[in-house]
Design a protein that fits this description.
This protein is mainly alpha-helical. It has a domain of 97 residues: Orthogonal Bundle (Arc Repressor Mutant, subunit A), CATH 1.10.10.10. The chain contains six helices and three strands.
């Protein structure tokens, strides 16, 4: 288990510490989701697409909170797995992304696993969870103000 004891030292990079924590959390979620064949990055895209039913790449990038190129790479993997499909939109220059039947089934299988990962992280963070969300919100506002 990694212990972030030096987070307040002046020579410790906050960005590096947060990136490492994000990597560690991703590993936890990925291990819980492994039986579904998904990683947390894939689950996030499928879950957001499921709530939108269909979306353009630009719309889905905004919903998921990533840039178009990152989303495009993720979508190509999901398309190869037959979890999403691209359909021609009314405007021939754009395409719409939809969840396939297999995508819906896979998401349904993965959701209880994700809930278990959430429960694990709630247990790990305990009473500090609210502080974590407050800190994340502050970081988001600082980034938006740039």
């Amino acid at each position: 288990m990694r212990v972030y004891t030096r987070i307040m030292d002046m020579d410790t990079c906050i960005c590096t510490g947060l990136r490492q924590a994000a990597f560690d959390i991703t590993e936890i979620y990925d291990s819980y989701l492994e039986p579904s064949g998904l990683k947390i990055t894939m689950f996030r895209v499928l879950r957001r697409l499921s709530s939108a039913e269909q979306a353009s790449i630009t719309e889905l990038a905004v919903i998921v909170g990533v840039d178009r190129s990152t989303l495009g790479r993720n979508l190509r993997v999901l398309e190869r797995m037959n979890l999403v499909a691209f359909e021609e939109a009314e405007d021939a220059r754009s395409r719409t992304i939809v969840l396939t039947a297999l995508g819906r089934t896979t998401l349904a299988k993965a959701t209880p696993l994700w809930v278990k990962a959430q429960t694990k992280m709630r247990s790990v963070l305990g009473e500090e969870l609210k502080s974590v969300f407050v800190a994340m919100t502050k970081v988001k506002h600082a980034a938006e103000a740039q």
